[in-house]
Specification:
Blueprint (H helix, E strand, L loop, with lengths): L1 H4 L2 H66 L2 H8 L7 H19 L5 E8 L4 E4 L14 H8 L5 E6 L12 E10 L4 E10 L2 H8 L8 E5 L5 E4 L19 E6 L2 E8 L4 E8 H4 L1 H47 L13 H41 L4 H16 L3 H18 L6 E3 H18 L4 E6 L8 E3 L3 H13 L8 E10 L2 E8 L6 H12 L13 H14 L4 E6 L5 E8 L2 H10 L1
Parallel strand pairs: 12-14
Antiparallel strand pairs: 1-2, 1-5, 3-4, 4-5, 6-7, 6-10, 8-9, 9-10, 11-13, 14-15, 15-17, 16-17
Length: 598
C-alpha cells in the first residue's frame, strides 16, 4: 500500500484533489459571506428607497387633497351662500340657494375620480351632500370624535384616516379615507360649519403595500399620539423614539428582535410610515443560495476528483508505457516505436527515446554491414571509373564510319544523339541554361524525330533573338516537345502531315513559351488529369496512380526557380491539337533598360 502511495499517479491525484477541493470550499465560503453582506445592504437600501418614495407619494396625495379642501373653503360664492340665514329667505330663494350650493359641490366632486362624497355641515344643523344619492346622515354626528377633531383644527386640514365605511353616511359601506376642514365666513371671519370629504383609500393602501419588503411585512400609517391611520396588520406598531424631531426627508432603518424596522415621517400631515419585516423574509434568497452551495460544492468536489484522476493518469500513463518499452529494449528488441500523445515534455521524452532506440538500431546495422561494405568497396570503385566519355566517343566513331560510307542522314542522327547525351548528362552549375542552349538541343532532338517519322513533321520556330539569353531550367523544352510528338503527332494517319509550332511571346512582365501541335488533341478527362498533376506536383493523380512524372518534375523546377505564380499550362481539344505554355518572368535588367529607354 505504501509503495502504491509513492507512485506518481497517486501522489498527483491526491495533490490535485486537495488543491481543487480546497479552492472550491474557500471560494464557496467567501462567496456566501460576501453575498450575505451585499444582500442585507441591498435590502436595506431598497427598503430605504421604498420608504422615501412612499413618503413622497403621500406628500403628493395629501397636497392634492389639501388643495381640494381649499378650493371649497375659499369659494366665495359657496361661503356667501352658506353664510346667509335661511330662516329669513323666501322658500323659492332658499331652494335656489340650495341648488346652487349643490351644483358647486357637484362640480368639485366630478373634478376628481377618487371622491366618494362631499359633505358640508353648517353649525345650525343644515347639511349639504353630494355623492351617494341614497345617503342617510348620522343624526349624532356632532358628538362624534371626527367632528370634534375637525372643529379643533381651527381652519387647518384635519386628516381623519382610513375607515371601513363612511363616518357620516350610514348607507355608504365602502372603505373611505376621510379628511375635513372648518368653514369660515370670510367677511366676519366666524365659523359657519365644516366640510367633510371622503375619498377612496386605494391610493393610500397601494402606497402602504409598496412598503412591503417580504410576504410577512407589516406596514403602518401612524398619526399623532400613536393613532393608527391605516395598517396592514392588527398587531400594534413598534414605537420609534428616534422619529421625534426628525425631518420629513429622514429615513430610519433599525434592526431589532430579529426584524428590520424602517420608518419615516410625513411633515405635511404629521404622520409616520413604519415598515416591519422579519429576518426570515430577508433571508429567503440567502437560504436558497446556501442550499445551492450545499448542492454545487459536493458536485464540484466530485468533478475535481474526476479531473484530478484524468490529469494524473494523463501524466503517469505515458511514463508507464515508456517504462514498459524500455524493458523490452533491454531484452534486445530495438524495432519498437512508442506513439504517445501527452504533454509537451512527455512527448519530447518519448521522441528522444524513439530516436535513441532508432540510432542504436542503425549503429548495430552499420556494424553488421561494415564487413560487406569493405568487400564491395573495390567493385564500387571500378564501377565508378566507367566514364560516360566512352559512350560519347563511341557515338562519334559511329558517325565518322557512317560519314565515310556516305550515310549522311544516319550520321546526322547519330551526331544529334551524341549531342543530346552530352547535354543531358551534365547537370552542374545549378542546372540552369540559356534559352539559346535549349533551342540548340531541341534542334538535335527534332533531327532524330524527323528521321524517325520520315519527314511527316514540320517544325515552325518563332523565337526572337532578344529572348535567347534568358536563363531557364535545363531540359525545359525537350520533354514538352517529346510529349507533343509522342501523344499528339505520332498517332496521326500516315497521310496527315503534322506541324509543331514553337514560339515566344511577351505578355506584360512575363515571357510565354508555347509548344503547339495539330495532332490528335486531348480528351477532357485527360486534360483534367494533366492539370491536376501540374497543380499538385509530386502527388498522385486523381485516379490514385502516379503519372506525368516528367511534367511534374519540370513544374517543380520552374516553381523552385521562379516561384509558384509561374509554370506550365495545358489546353487542347480532341482532334484540335494540344498547346503547352511555359510562363516565366522577364529579366529585371531588361525591365530597367526598357524603363530608361522609354
Amino acid at each position: 500500500m505504501q509503495r502504491r502511495f509513492q507512485s506518481i499517479h497517486h501522489r498527483l491525484f491526491i495533490l490535485f484533489l486537495f488543491c481543487m477541493s480546497g479552492i472550491v470550499l474557500a471560494v464557496s465560503l467567501l462567496f456566501y459571506n460576501r453575498t450575505t453582506v451585499q444582500f442585507h445592504d441591498k435590502i436595506s437600501d431598497l427598503a430605504r428607497k421604498n420608504v422615501s418614495q412612499t413618503a413622497g407619494l403621500f406628500d403628493l396625495l395629501l397636497n392634492s387633497y389639501n388643495s381640494l379642501t381649499k378650493s371649497i373653503t375659499n369659494n366665495l360664492d359657496l361661503v356667501r351662500l352658506l353664510g346667509t340665514e335661511t330662516a329669513d329667505q323666501p322658500e323659492a330663494v332658499a331652494y335656489i340657494n340650495e341648488r346652487t350650493i349643490t351644483n358647486i359641490l357637484g362640480a368639485i366632486y366630478y373634478s376628481r375620480e377618487d371622491l366618494i362624497g362631499i359633505h358640508v355641515l353648517k353649525d345650525d344643523g343644515k347639511v349639504y351632500n353630494y355623492g351617494n344619492y341614497m345617503n342617510v346622515i348620522d343624526p349624532e354626528y356632532m358628538h362624534s370624535e371626527w367632528y370634534q377633531e375637525i372643529k379643533k383644527s381651527a381652519g387647518k386640514i384635519a386628516w381623519l384616516g382610513v375607515y371601513p365605511h363612511s363616518v357620516i353616511d350610514q348607507m355608504e359601506k365602502r372603505p373611505v379615507f376621510a379628511f375635513g376642514r372648518q368653514l369660515y365666513d370670510l367677511d366676519e371671519h366666524r365659523p359657519i360649519g365644516i366640510v367633510l370629504i371622503e375619498a377612496e383609500p386605494k391610493s393610500i393602501l397601494a402606497a402602504l403595500h409598496n412598503l412591503r419588503v417580504g410576504p410577512n411585512s407589516e406596514v403602518y400609517l401612524v398619526g399623532q399620539g400613536g393613532r393608527i391611520v391605516s395598517a396592514t396588520s392588527s398587531n400594534p406598531p413598534p414605537s420609534l423614539e428616534s422619529l421625534r424631531g426628525s425631518g420629513g426627508d429622514d429615513v430610519i432603518v433599525e434592526r431589532r428582535d430579529q426584524q428590520v424596522v424602517i420608518a419615516s415621517r410625513l411633515p405635511f400631515a404629521d404622520w409616520s410610515v413604519i415598515s416591519v419585516t422579519p429576518n426570515q423574509d430577508l433571508n429567503v434568497e440567502l437560504a436558497q443560495t446556501q442550499r445551492f452551495l450545499l448542492i454545487v460544492a459536493p458536485v464540484l468536489i466530485m468533478l475535481s476528483a474526476f479531473i484530478a484522476l484524468v490529469v494524473s493518469r494523463s501524466i503517469s500513463q505515458p511514463l508507464k508505457r515508456l517504462i514498459r518499452e524500455m524493458k523490452l529494449v533491454e531484452t534486445g528488441n530495438f524495432r519498437r516505436r512508442l506513439e504517445v500523445t501527452s504533454y509537451q515534455e512527455v512527448n519530447q521524452l518519448v521522441d528522444s527515446f524513439n530516436h535513441m532506440v532508432g540510432r542504436i538500431e542503425e549503429l548495430i546495422e552499420l556494424v553488421k554491414i561494415s564487413s560487406v561494405s569493405e568487400k564491395n568497396a573495390e567493385l564500387h570503385a571500378l564501377q565508378t571509373q566507367v566514364n560516360p566519355h566512352f559512350l560519347y566517343n563511341t557515338l562519334d566513331m559511329i558517325y565518322w564510319m557512317l560519314d565515310e560510307k556516305g550515310q549522311d542522314q544516319l550520321g546526322e542522327v547519330v551526331l544529334s544523339l551524341s549531342h543530346l547525351f552530352r547535354y543531358s548528362s551534365h547537370w552542374e552549375e545549378g542546372a540552369e541554361v540559356t534559352l539559346r542552349e535549349e533551342v540548340e538541343q531541341m534542334g538535335h532532338y527534332l533531327t532524330i524525330i524527323q528521321a524517325r517519322l520520315e519527314g511527316r513533321v514540320t517544325v515552325l520556330m518563332d523565337i526572337s533573338q532578344q529572348w535567347m539569353d534568358i536563363r531557364i531550367p535545363k531540359m525545359t523544352l525537350q520533354p514538352l516537345i517529346e510529349n507533343a510528338v509522342k501523344h499528339g503527332l505520332e498517332p496521326l494517319e500516315p497521310n496527315v502531315r503534322g506541324e509543331l509550332h514553337v514560339r515566344a511571346e511577351e505578355s506584360g512582365q512575363t515571357l510565354r513559351l508555347t509548344i503547339a501541335d495539330n495532332g490528335v488533341g486531348i480528351t477532357p478527362e485527360r486534360l483534367i488529369e494533366v492539370r491536376y498533376a501540374l497543380a499538385n506536383p509530386g502527388k498522385q493523380n486523381i485516379s490514385g496512380r502516379t503519372g506525368h512524372i516528367g511534367l511534374q518534375n519540370l513544374q517543380m523546377r520552374l516553381h523552385h526557380m521562379f516561384g509558384k505564380e509561374y509554370g506550365l499550362g495545358v489546353t487542347g481539344k480532341p482532334g484540335k491539337g494540344t498547346k503547352i505554355t511555359v510562363t516565366i518572368p522577364l529579366p529585371k535588367e531588361r525591365k530597367s533598360d526598357e524603363y530608361f529607354d522609354s
